[in-house]
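Subject: for your reference before the review

Hello V.,

The reviewers asked for a structural picture of the protein, and I figured it would be easier to keep everything in one thread rather than splitting it across files. Below is the amino acid sequence we used in the manuscript, unchanged from the supplementary table.
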Amino acid sequence: MKKSVSIRFYEELNDFLGAPKRKKEFKASLTGASSVQDLIKSLGVPPAEVDLILVNGRSVSFAYTPQNGDRISVFPVFETFDISKITKLRPKSLRNPKFILDADLGELAEIMRIFGFDTVCRTDYKKHDIVDLSSMENRTILTRNRELLLSKEVARGYLVKHTNPARQFNEVINHFDLKLSQQ
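And here is what came back from the structure prediction:
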């Protein structure tokens, strides 16, 4: 049976959507018993960048099966305040940030280490090594590879937009609001 839901993505999650779907509610169709995580991925948004999903105003997990007529709101990772009392997506909030970067971000990794951030980056890591270490050590994956973040095993990740390492560093600092945590 085909279902129709209304969905809206907030803040930087809109960067993954086409212009007609950005910053507004739109209709999405589902067939079968797809989860809300499957819906989010099908629209091109990596679940690793999602921290809160509200369905009809109620917090749900990624496993929730959307019902016909649901209104779904999808929010990005909140780093500046604790939403752990309302979200069911993560076991704990990211407060002591640790990162793992793929080999394409080696220069960014060096800058982050200089500024004292717990950062891992090795050229010999394969995709599964990055995902496994991220999971085992609660590290946020930083990458320019969208496909890596679409993997269902990825719990925390961020798609770095800039290509210049200095601009990448500023982007990460601003996105995760790390200025406050490093004072």
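For the response letter, the relevant points are probably these. Residues 160 and 172 are 7 Å apart (CA to CA). The helical segments are 36-42, 106-114, 127-137, 146-149, 165-175, 178-181.

Happy to draft the paragraph if you're swamped.

O.
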